[in-house]
Design goal:
Layout (H helix, E strand, L loop, with lengths): L18 H20 L28 E2 L11 H4 L14 H5 L9 E6 L5 E4 H6 L4 E8 L4 E11 H8 L7 E6 L19 E5 H4 L5 E6 L2 E2 L9 E3 L12 E7 L6 H5 L23 E4 L10 E2 L7 H4 L13
Parallel strand pairs: 1-4, 2-11, 5-12
Antiparallel strand pairs: 2-3, 4-5, 5-8, 6-7, 6-11, 8-9, 8-10, 12-13
The structure holds ligand MTE and molybdenum atom.
Molybdenum atom (MO) binds next to loops.
EC number: 1.8.5.-
Subunit structure: Heterodimer of a catalytic subunit (MsrP) and a heme-binding subunit (MsrQ).
Catalytic activity: L-methionyl-[protein] + a quinone + H2O = L-methionyl-(S)-S-oxide-[protein] + a quinol; L-methionyl-[protein] + a quinone + H2O = L-methionyl-(R)-S-oxide-[protein] + a quinol
Length: about 325
């Protein structure tokens, strides 16, 4: 985030999912949401409503099946090539195309996630256990990077609360810390001191338990591509993208507010909360509007950024009474 980003070329028209597909999907999801609201979904496998969005035919990654979630946005997903080709994953370099290039060789199996700290039942999860811990859902979320761009990504995963409930946090667990892989043998970006490694992020417990906070294992109908944080990452759609740590190896429950990697690097720029807020500018970037990746062409459409990235109805109550300028 300390480097400039360059504009990408327009996606080829053929790579944009046809409007009709979006429209069909939108109707399906609306129907699912209505049905869920009225209780009509009871007893029906929700996967019957829609299959996950498919990756390109050329992709050889293992496929995942998942039920469509009524928590998905109806906005058109960003093309697969942008979701998997325009990334921030500084362990592999700071250019947007570095992760796609250098994360190819990341070894994602075997993989374990240690869960420890203020919990009654500390334990280690293997990646195959994590895959089966709760029913997989497709959640199409708006994502907003603090650099001023956004995407719409069809994630696959389940609420982090499913994992948290397994380990039973103690009364002292006020925050949760995510530690991501830091292996200099596999990650050329670790030779740079741009951040203190490993990449550490954190949430307050009520944020972590919120149903929108997703433990993601896939996207576009397949297991996570390495550059997107394989094999397991967080997705917190109402916060700037850097709160969503990739390639997680440790989850720690703690009493004190975690010192995150970005806070450590520039405390006046990256607060702990980092909720998307169009009214609070980053020292170097206004946050009032954004550029949707995959849409930028000669028209250079700019979209207004929404409070809590459009998830205010669901999450604003978490911050009732807090000064969001101080707690940025
Ligand atoms: N481990 C790790 N996680 C990370 C980052 C990183 O550099 N390292 N970058 C963050 C930032 S700034 C963003 S915007 C998102 C990007 O996720 P995506 O490439 O899957 O869209 O990942 C976040 N998670
Ligand atoms: Mo970001």
């Amino acid at each position: 985030m300390l480097v400039r980003f360059t504009h990408r070329n327009d996606p080829l028209a053929s790579e944009i999912t046809p409007q009709a597909v979006y429209r069909g999907r939108r109707d399906i999801l609306k129907a699912a949401a209505l049905a869920a609201g009225s209780g009509a979904l009871a007893g029906l496998p929700s996967a019957a409503f829609a299959a996950p969005l498919a990756p390109p035919a050329s992709s050889t990654a293992p496929r995942l099946s998942a039920a469509a979630s009524p928590l998905s946005t109806a906005e058109p997903p960003t093309p697969y090539k942008d979701v998997t080709g325009y990334n921030n994953f500084y362990e592999f370099g700071t250019d947007k195309d570095d992760p796609a290039r250098y994360a190819k060789s990341l070894k994602t199996r075997p993989w374990t996630v240690v869960v420890e700290g203020e919990v009654a039942k500390p334990r280690m999860f293997g990646i195959d256990e994590l895959m089966k811990l709760a029913p997989l859902e497709e959640r199409i979320y708006r994502m907003r990077c603090v650099e001023g761009w956004s995407m719409v990504i069809p994630w696959i995963g389940y609420p982090l609360s499913a994992l948290i409930n397994q380990v039973q946090p103690t009364g002292n667990a006020k925050y949760i810390e995510f530690h991501t892989l830091a292996d200099p043998k596999q990650m050329p970006g670790l030779s740079s001191s741009v951040l203190a490694w490993p990449y550490v992020e954190g949430l307050r417990m009520d944020e972590a338990m919120h149903p929108l906070a997703l433990l993601a294992l896939g996207l576009y109908g397949e297991v996570l591509p390495n550059q997107n944080g394989a094999p397991v990452r967080m997705v917190v759609p109402w916060k700037y993208g850097f709160k969503s740590g990739k390639s997680i190896v440790k989850i720690r429950f703690v009493e004190k507010q975690p010192v995150t990697s970005w806070y450590r690097a520039a405390p006046h720029e990256y607060g702990f909360y980092s909720n998307v807020n169009p009214e609070v500018a980053h020292p170097r970037w206004s946050q009032a509007s954004e550029r949707r990746i995959g849409e930028d062409g000669f028209l250079q459409r700019k979209r207004p950024t929404l409070m809590f990235n459009g998830y205010a109805d669901q999450v604003a109550s978490l911050y009732a009474g807090m000064d969001l300028r101080k707690n940025f």
